[in-house]
Amino acid sequence: MAVLRNRRGLWGSSSRPAADHQKRGSWVPVCSAPGLSEASAAPEASERPGAPADRHPAPRDRKRKRVFGLYSGEEFHETFDCPIKIIAVHPHFVRSSCKQFVTGGKKLLLFERSWMSRWKSSVLHEGEGNIRSVKWRGHLIAWANNMGVKIFDITSKQRITNVPRDDISLRPDMYPCSLCWKDSVTLIIGWGTSVKICSVKERHASEMRDLPSRYVEIVSQFETEFYISGLAPLCDQLVVLSYVKEVSEKTEREYCARPRLDIIQPLSEACEEISSDALTVRGFQENECRDYHLEYSEGESLFYIVSPRDVVVAKERDQDDHIDWLLEKKKYEEALMAAEISQKNIKRHKILDIGLAYINHLVEKGEYDIAARKCQKILGKNAALWEYEVYKFKEIGQLKAISPYLPRGDPVLKPLIYEMILHEFLESDYEGFATLVREWPGDLYNNSVIVQAVREHLKKDSQNRTLLQTLAELYTYDKNYGNALEIYLTLRHKDVFQLIHKHNLFSSIKDKIVLLMDFDSEKAVDMLLDNEDKISIKKVVEELEDRPELQHVYLHKLFKRDHHKGQRYHEKQISLYAEYDRPNLLPFLRDSTHCPLEKALEICHQRNFVEETVYLLSRMGNSRSALKMIMEELHDVDKAIEFAKEQDDGELWEDLILYSIDKPPFITGLLNNIGTHVDPILLIHRIKEGMEIPNLRDSLVKILQDYNLQILLREGCKKILVADSLSLLKKMHRTQMKGILVDEENICESCLAPILPSDAAKPFSMVVFHCRHMFHKECLPVPSMTSPAQFCNICSAKHRGPGSAILEMKK
Questions:
Q1: CA–CA separation, 439 vs 433, rounded Å?
Q2: 463-509 confidence digits (pLDDT tens)
Q3: Could you tell me the pTM of the whole model?
Q4: Domain boundary among 389, 413, 437
Q5: Please, what sign has the CA dihedral across residues 287, 289, 291, 293?
Q6: Is residue 310 a contact partner of residue 17, using CB atoms and an 8 Å limit?
Q7: Domain range holding 677?
Q8: Strand 119-126 vs strand 100-104: parallel, antiparallel, or unpaired?
């Protein structure tokens, strides 16, 4: 894509248009090599039919040509015998060995400087009309005349090709040929509406014979919908200066449209248009195809469009141009993104400037929140710009919009900025004010100034919870924890416990324990018990003396944590449990070992707590009274049976049977549950004849089933015991049948002499027990009527023991 810009007077010191230069007989130069110029003569007026005389006067001197250095003082001129139309210098004319140039008119002449610094000329071509276009690249010279395009190899001094003109109906002077070299071997020809891309190739040695060493192959050829006034390469694409004729809808006559600069992608037999830009040049309505010329500066990627009155410079669009277009279309976000992506390549734009323009654009549109949000990314760590933008938002009354995005760390703005925003919220939005105080670090602004402002507002609305809570937070930032604690307690705020823990304010709450318990007894008790070293149990109990319900909550939690730590208060806790928490009284009585049982029994009797009284009676050893209370007070045979099972006392079972003998429901309960602890016959024999007992049959069946179950269990246990006994007996027998090694080192455990005699031939007798102890037979007591069996004196001195079995050895 190309960006077009008009520049007038580009080629001379004068700012007059190009046509004026022709009127003075000057030449339009085109840069073709470093420090050198290529000159081409303006066409004669006589060759332009229909052209006004004042627009194209004849040059005063058409035979004298001059080549001069743009950046050096070198200059030479030559006078010719006949008029010339075009001139081209060697691409490396600056070198002394390349002082060559060609001129085109009726002939194509090559001029070379000889060793005497004189110019000698040679005719390269003639006889086919005027030569109107010449392009020199490397060792190849391409030119166009009325018949076609030729290429001359300056090295071999041979013409290597002839590309004939396609459309001979077009006058060559009105629709001249356009030539350009893409590289040293690729020539692009544009003539009329036809484009040809030619490639110069080396001929194989076997094919040469009398032919040139090089030949030309047309690699692409296609037609266009417009007339070609100029060509130039652009990477693998072509830049084409197009001359367009259109038909008027009103008059149905052709007229000259504005010239176009097209970029096309050549294909083998066609082309694809990439972009097209119409050029605005003065007098385009009167211009012909030959009035336009396209030259390009290869190193700078600049394209020069020359018309009779204007010179237009086109250059390849860069990222700066793209950003310009986006900004012109007010697409600021896309421009900012493009600048960030191509940060290293842009030269004329700065990301910050684009970002600031974007913010201003959003503000103008009324999109304040988006503008404020973009400030974070665009302004970054530039504190001065942040402060400037904040004041801009203040002027339009939108400080609230920018407040969430203000920097809070790096950078830090002036305290006045933050205070200004806090005051703005304090005047109109208490909740927003509280949010900012909660989110902003306290060191961003002058805390005392904001505290004073909040106090002033509290004078008008002293019960406003939001302001009070915010004031407490400000006191906390200011390390005024006492005032903060009082406000939190007044508000019953959940953060009061966090404040106490974080800043170790236990000394400040010793007289505020009741307030804390009223607010949240669970958290308060946990906090007090976790910090017994700072607030003693005694102090807490004393503070709660007037609030026994809270006292019970504290002592109950203490007892659950440790049964012994608050033992001095266990007697007090009996009354507290009885008054406020009876469900936990019985567990307390069971777990406490410091509870006075008499006191507890008295309280339970007074309040008629039967279950607790039964437990206390049983714990004090008065099980019969406890059982009697269960039966007489609770009338619960199952509980009475359960109690009798726990105590496992025969007298209790007897009392239970005596009490139940005249109560059929009790008898049914006993029959269902007594079978596993007491012989049911004792109960059955005492049942009066004729007494109706509910579900008697089911109860008797259950008794028989329980009995059968017991028999089965006993038989099963017996079988297991017999099997285990037999297995162990066999194991013992196998062990006892094993031999025992006796050697010279063994001694008699009684006399301590060697067990074996020193004379092996002498007869001896010894006894070895299964416990491995050995004795001389004569060292053991002689069996008697009272003790017929011998035993090991060591393992079982008086009773039969593990050494009672005897293994007697004789020799």
A1: 10
A2: 888 888 888 888 888 888 888 888 888 888 888 888 888 888 888 88
A3: 0.50
A4: 413
A5: positive
A6: yes
A7: 656-738
A8: unpaired
